[in-house]
């Protein structure tokens, strides 16, 4: 839904209302001359900035970018906060912040935007005193101020003429904050906006937004096998903005490809999430968030396909990811970790090399002693997998020293 004004939302605590959305639009036209031809390419955008939740000193927001001009192959969005807010962690792009100015660049998967297409980066940030929404945005250097013009072409004998509807020129120097490249999992841990005591599994369907409420109430709080999950996400579904606390049962079950965005486990139960699709092309994305106290493991990969974990933090846990080594059905499984920070965690990934599993790592920060990639020999159900090695090998475990920062 396009938001064209502001919407107030009732909050608990000392802040009674917040500006939840603001919408701005823009246009510019540029003439490019080559081989005696001039072309006028429309450039335009709409940005919908929505505060999704807010708590004492922190908040979450989505920034929906809609391309109203010609197709883009990459994008860069810029805005300025007016009350000292800071971005701590961002998903759906890569960010830097210098003073009040925030710059967000497209991620590798969402740089192409057709005319009328949208993409929605989201972030967690901090505020103090007040939290007004930004009032102006720039997409690829063009201020969002109007409506797009049409594209036209004409014959010209000039080969040097250029024209643009905007004349503003500005040089901006930005510096990368402690969360480079869209977040490295080192941002602050969020507070909840309320709590929900849930004693039966909730069907999240294809989309569920928890509004940063804290959900708890299933299982015994331990890591015993066979507990019911808190949430079940349908194939292709998304669950976001949820805090899960003990007792948390078996966390989240993804029945097929899924996105788990900005979900935080205060205390991992049996597992934080289990990925179950038998389809080799299944993709599971964990984007942002964090997990604490996963004594055995955090993410369990029982099905096939690829799990991507990015911009995530893990504390006081056994393994962040484990490809099942003795499930009833054996699959080839893959995991990609990017922008992960681990504290007091023994292992980042455990995979089964005899089944062709792979693990790839980039922008990893570890505090303490952590094994990056442990290799096992997978076995039939009822037996125990055997650990056969660890470390990068260019065959199953992929990373270089520059990918790992040791603190």
TrEMBL record:
Chain ranges of the CBM2 domain: 38-147
Record's GO cellular component terms: extracellular region
SMART domains in the cross-refs: CBD_II
Broad EC category: lyase
Keyword Nuclease: no
GO BP, sorted A to Z: pectin catabolic process
Cofactor requirement: Ca(2+)
Stretch list, region Disordered: 142-205
EC number: 4.2.2.2
Catalytic reaction list: Eliminative cleavage of (1->4)-alpha-D-galacturonan to give oligosaccharides with 4-deoxy-alpha-D-galact-4-enuronosyl groups at their non-reducing ends
Organism domain of life: Bacteria
GO terms assigned for molecular function: hydrolase activity, hydrolyzing O-glycosyl compounds; pectate lyase activity; polysaccharide binding
Subcellular localization, as worded in the UniProt entry: Secreted
Signal sequence annotation: 1-41
Name recorded for this polypeptide: pectate lyase
């Amino acid at each position: 839904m396009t938001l064209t004004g502001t919407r107030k939302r009732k909050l608990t605590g000392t802040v009674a209302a917040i500006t939840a959305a603001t919408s701005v639009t823009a246009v510019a036209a540029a003439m490019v001359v080559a081989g005696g031809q001039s072309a006028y390419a429309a450039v335009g955008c709409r940005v919908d900035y929505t505060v999704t939740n807010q708590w004492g000193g922190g908040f979450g927001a989505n920034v929906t970018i809609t391309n109203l001009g010609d197709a883009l192959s990459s994008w860069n969005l810029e805005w300025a906060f007016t009350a000292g807010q800071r971005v701590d962690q961002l998903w759906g792009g890569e960010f830097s912040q210098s003073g009040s100015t925030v710059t967000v660049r497209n991620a590798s998967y969402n740089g192409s935007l057709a005319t009328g297409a949208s993409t929605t980066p989201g972030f967690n940030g901090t505020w103090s005193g007040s939290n007004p929404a930004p009032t102006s945005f720039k997409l690829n250097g063009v201020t969002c101020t109007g409506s797009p013009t049409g594209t036209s072409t004409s014959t010209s004998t000039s080969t040097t003429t250029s024209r643009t509807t905007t004349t503003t020129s500005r040089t901006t120097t930005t510096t990368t904050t402690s969360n480079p490249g869209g977040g490295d999992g080192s941002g602050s841990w969020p507070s909840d906006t309320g709590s929900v005591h849930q004693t039966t599994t909730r069907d999240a369907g294809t989309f569920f937004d928890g509004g940063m409420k804290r959900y708890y109430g299933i299982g015994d709080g331990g890591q015993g096998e066979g507990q019911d999950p808190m949430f079940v996400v349908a194939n292709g579904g998304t669950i976001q903005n949820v805090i899960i606390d003990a007792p948390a049962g078996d966390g989240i079950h993804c029945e097929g490809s899924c996105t788990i965005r900005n979900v935080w486990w205060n205390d991992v139960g049996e597992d934080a999430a289990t990925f179950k699709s038998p389809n080799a092309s299944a993709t599971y994305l964990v984007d942002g968030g964090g997990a604490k106290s996963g004594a055995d493991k955090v993410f369990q990969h029982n099905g096939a396909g690829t799990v991507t974990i990015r911009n995530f933090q893990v504390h006081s846990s056994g393994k962040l990811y484990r490809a099942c080594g003795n499930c009833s059905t054996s699959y080839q499984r893959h995991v990609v970790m990017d922008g992960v920070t681990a504290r007091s965690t023994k292992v980042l990934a455990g995979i089964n090399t005899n089944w062709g599993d792979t693990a790839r790592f980039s922008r990893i920060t570890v505090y303490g002693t952590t094994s990056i990639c442990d290799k096992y020999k997978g076995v039939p159900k009822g037996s125990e997998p055997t650990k056969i090695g660890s470390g990068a090998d260019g065959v199953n475990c992929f990373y270089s020293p520059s990918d790992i920062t040791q603190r």
